[in-house]
Amino acid sequence: MPNTRSPIDILLNLVPDSPQTVLTHLANAPNLADAKDGHGYSLLHAAASYNQIPLLRMLVQTYNVSPNIVDEDNETPLFAAENVDVAKELLGLGADAGWKNAEGFTAAMKMEGEGEFPLVAQYLREQTTSDASSSTEANALEGILPHPPPLPNGLQVNIGTMDEPEEAGAPDPEFRRRIEELAARDDFQGEEGQRQLRELVTEAVTGIRAGEEEDGRDTRRRRVE
């Protein structure tokens, strides 16, 4: 009687005990890497189910099989994971822990409902809870923190830190006295009073003494008449 089994069926049967033989066949027929049997079952589903992590990794990384490839029940290989190591590997390769099958259940929900693989279910539940929490926090911050306006072309902003400025010293008593004397003058609001006020302000801001002599001698503060 002739063998009527398809190539993918033959490879699927080799996964439990001869994963290396599967890889040898795939080297000559890479198109079978993401092939499915009559129920949508793939080599990645089988590798997950039988804990063949090296084969699982090769299928995704070398043959570009999607870690979320689905069978006829819209279930990814994560639904076939029977131990935590396989589940971790699949998630590390990009499997979606929140993926739902045709009945609307995630892998964790299905395992919990059927009472199977409790450690895997717990691990997956922790991952989906963590992802949901991170997403919620990000969304909350998104609503609170305002977006800055776009920068003009050619403008760049560099964010860094700078040292705290040293504490300012006490006000100069002499400068304070001069301000008070100037403010008490009758012509304070006049042109001359305002000119002298501007000079005092210039001294305070720039630290340059307005009374510097032109002959190059040491500078000294000018006495206000």
Structurally, the number of domains stands at: 2
Rg, alpha carbons = 39 Å
CATH architecture verdict of the largest domain: Alpha Horseshoe
Mean pLDDT: 79
Query: Helical stretch count?
Result: 9
The amount of helix comes to 40-55%
CATH level-4 homologous superfamily of the largest domain: Ankyrin repeat-containing domain
Order of helices and strands: HHHHHHHHH
Walk me through what this model shows.
It is a single chain. With 225 residues, the chain is an all-alpha fold. The chain folds into two domains: 7-134, Serine Threonine Protein Phosphatase 5, Tetratricopeptide repeat (Alpha Horseshoe), CATH 1.25.40; 173-206, no CATH class. The chain has helices at 7-14, 19-28, 43-49, 53-61, 84-92, 107-114, 118-144, 173-184, 191-206. Helix 3 runs antiparallel to helix 4 (53-61) and helix 6 packs antiparallel against helix 7. Mean pLDDT is 79; it is low at 133-141, 143-147, 165-169 and 208-225.
